[in-house]
Amino acid sequence: MISTLKIGSIHIEVHRKDVKNLNITVHPPLGDVRVSAPLNMSETAVRMAVIGRLAWIKKQQADFNEQRRQSKREMMSGESHYLWGKHYRLNVIERPGKHCIKKHGQWLDLYVSPSSSIDNRRKVIDDFYRIELKTALDELLLEWQKKMQVKISAYGIRKMKTKWGSCNTDTARTLFNLELAKKPYECLEYIVVHELVHLFVRTHNDEFLAYMNQYLPDWKQRKALLRDQPLTDL
After folding, report:
1. How confident is the model at residue 234 (pLDDT cuts 50, 70, 90)?
2. Of 10, 53, 123, 138, which has the fewest CB atoms closer than 10 Å, so is most exposed?
């Protein structure tokens, strides 16, 4: 069950779940606040818990606001694009034939027909990122499922505005944000481990953190690195 609360200027999405403890998360890029609350917790108790964390919530939102945000891309030559945390310039090459992207030094050569629209060009780039991310995920998931002795049923790649990843613990299916292809590889590995740990523990409680510390001792540094990466307008 999902409901909403408003405290001052902050809107909170409350998810009622079969959990023991209340959990508050603030999601990039817009600083959306989400609360997972026990089924039997009263609205007043939820409200008081959120009020007690307002300072922390506002700090998280301020951090997101201070992050570098890339302007919306027009898919023109000279634009800045990122792949695995590295900066590239886009070089649009108009010619007949199949649309594709090739890496060339510090350039991403985008081959498109002269009549291609911005949306067509954006799709070519998205498809390129999807292939890059799938290749990396296939390797990382194979490695970490073996290390952690867990098994997912399937995974998907999707553009998401508020999450880097998600895990459905009932179906053992994971989702990963397409934007991760733009971030450093170690950030993707952090998200992979994070989502696989959810197969052990549903919520971000002390047990969850203990698993993260066990499998990826530097996860906090990786999380901070991901937070400091440029945000893009999807």
Report:
1. very low
2. 138
